[in-house]
Amino acid sequence: xxxxxxxxxxxxxxxxxxxxxxxxxxxxxxxxxxxxxxxxxxxxxxxxxxxxxxxxxxxxxxxxxxxxxxxxxxxxxxxxxxxxxxxxxxxxxxxxxxxxxxxxxxxxxxxxxxxxxxxxxxxxxxxxxxxxxxxxxxxxxxxxxxxxxxxxxxxxxxxxxxxxxxxxxxxxxxxxxxxxxxxxxx
Length: 186
Description:
Layout (H helix, E strand, L loop, with lengths): L8 E10 L2 E8 L6 E6 L10 E6 L15 E18 L3 H9 L8 E13 L3 E7 L2 E5 L8 H25 L14
Parallel strand pairs: 3-5
Antiparallel strand pairs: 1-2, 1-4, 2-3, 4-8, 5-6, 6-7
């Protein structure tokens, strides 16, 4: 379970112009001060070495995130990209929700679009994900470029962060841990 508050973000900035560090600010509806990001790691190659600014042209309240969401986010980068493919529905939300209820979702028109996907593993809130096709994006010139070895290393770190998060989630919900191997089992 992730914190997903993309609808109430009004605008933001993500900066990966320094290798190994993603910083940023996210402004949320109803909050005077921005959320501050300070994360270890790098974005995917499309944003690595760049600064990204974005604007949500239609922000909406998400009151379920008024409590408990830390405005100081530290931790590790997950997947950060502006090139993930996602279906973007071409009708208002209430139209496709009605189609979903009536099991006519296959009739809803859509296009495949690039989406902004910001994922990080917060020291305070666990997994946080912003995933949307609704923001207007501006990407700066590249300050540095990750080589294939750096890209592979970041991908391995992201996968390990997700594994650790899922293990922690499993423990929180009472899933039994796998027993450690006995000397006699080797």
